[in-house]
């Protein structure tokens, strides 16, 4: 085993958080801003990349950090290490309503491919890289699906997704089509591509995107019912307009402020 062997417990239903139990000397690595709480004697350290053992020297760390920039993530991650003499706990929270999916990479041939904003935390030693979809159609039209994250190792990783999560096992040759934002994760052997929605009326008036993801088995895929991009677009569309005609955060709070100040 190259990864730290951590234990965990999930709490909650739609707004979950995961509590990770660390033995003395064990470390868990998480995205910046995902910490909820931690016990005494757990030390935080900001690191380049993911802190996996596969990185060697400064060049390796910079290369790993640079790959994270391509996925829209920060150059840095945070490592939480138990420096005490007994077991301690650290908890990480979901960024929006949904589920946290624990994945033991050793059960999935050491590799899981997920959406670029899905990774939450992992045992130290898990490598967080990028997976570029090489097909031309995917590259030009895939949107969320073009650059994905690649989790490699033999330890635990935690992936977050919105709404309800559905796990589907694809048989050899079985094909599944879905909205690109609804794909959470898939095993490495799944064939992934982007397909154009046929029919001008469907493309222009159907209310869906012009392209959707096609997945072909064998392999396992995880699908989410509420991608964050869809949630954000609905919230933005429902926000009241300001007098200048623009929509912005805090419109309701601003209105209350103006009312009490006589404006």
Automatic annotation (TrEMBL):
Domain of life: Bacteria
Pfam families from the UniProt entry: AIM24 (PF01987)
InterPro entries: AIM24 (IPR002838), AIM24_sf (IPR036983), Trp_RNA-bd_attenuator-like_dom (IPR016031)
Protein name: TIGR00266 family protein
Native organism: Guptibacillus hwajinpoensis
Higher taxonomy: Bacteria, Bacillati, Bacillota, Bacilli, Bacillales
